Amino acid sequence: MKHLPIIALDFPSGSEALAFLDLFAGKPLFVKVGMELFYQEGPAIIETLKQKNCRIFLDLKLHDIPTTVQKAMNRLAALGVDLVNVHAAGGKRMMQAAVEGLESGTSAKQSRPNIIAVTQLTSTSEDIMKKEILIDRPLEETVLHYGQMAYESGLDGVVCSVHESKAIHEHISPSFLTVTPGIRLPNDQTDDQKRVATPAFAKEQGVSQIVVGRSITKAANPIAAYHQMIKEWERQPYENENC
Ligand code: C5P
To answer: Please, are residues 55 and 30 in contact by the beta-carbon 8 Å criterion?
Structure first.
């Protein structure tokens, strides 16, 4: 199946998100609904997007005590989305509770949404980790440790940067999903992201799925930017390419 970049629908309202989707004239898309859009529109936006044949990553990054996360995941499962996530920093018991909640909330007619764990945000650098979060270990070691915890807790994969994807597949499991934001075309601005890469480099690193927001949604021509992302994914990367 052709790789579909996940488009981050980071819009302040449903009407703006739907106007953006109209540009694609009904093409099947994989979209990400984050906090901004979900908190504004609530679960109704998920139903609307499903009617438009979108696959949906509901990116709410749950991080709370295990019982709360379990109950929240039970409710999210009922929305019938394809992918949800938690912060691995919530620990193993919280991640196991998330899986239990998703399983209990999935009806017999549905399949359980995949669940992945955020390792370190792609806006976090090793310097921020050390000085602000007081994690005094190399970034890749932390990402691998969080990934291993997610794997042992029964999750399906992680959110990480492109730069850690290969190590995760080598050290944890080749089939563990790596979903990577921080994707930019070679001449794009990096904005607030710190660990960025191009789609070609992502593919070369064995990434399972790329997530792209502003490089498509804020592009002068979003359709052209979307196709450029796919073309970049499909081409051979330059050696050691990076943004
Ligand atoms: O606009 P940009 O491509 O930077 O958007 C990236 C998207 O991925 C945003 O919606 C952001 O919330 C999300 N994300 C991220 N880093 C993570 C997890 C999610 O940037 N670790």
So the answer is: yes
Question: Going by CA atoms, what residue is nearest to atom 21 of ligand 1?
Answer: 121
**Domain ranges in the chain?**
6-234
CA angle 164, 170, 173 (to 5 degrees): 100
Between strands 6-8 and 30-33, the pairing is parallel
Residue 31 Cα, ligand 1 centroid: separation in angstroms? 12
Phi-psi region of 16 (alpha: psi -120 to 50; beta: other; left: phi over 0): alpha
For the CA of 212, the nearest atom of ligand 1: 3
The atom number, within ligand 1, closest to the CA of 35 reads: 12
> Has 61 been annotated as catalytic?
yes
Instruction: Please calculate the CA angle 158-178-162 and round it to the nearest 5 degrees.
Output: 110
Q: Structure pTM?
A: 0.93
Q: For residues 65 and 4, what is the distance between their CA atoms, to the nearest angstrom?
A: 34
Mutate to test the pocket of ligand 1, among 83, 211, 212, 226 (most ligand atoms within 8 A of CB): 211
Dist CA 42 CA 159 (whole Å) = 23
pLDDT in tens, 201-227: 999 999 999 999 999 999 999 999 999
Place of tokens 């399983």: 103
Q: List all residues whose CB is within 6 A of at least one atom of ligand 1.
A: 8, 10, 34, 59, 118, 121-122, 159, 181-182, 191, 193, 211-215
- State percent of the chain over pLDDT 90: 88
Residues 2, 32, 50, 61: which is the catalytic one?
A: 61
* CATH code of the domain made up of 6-234: 3.20.20.70
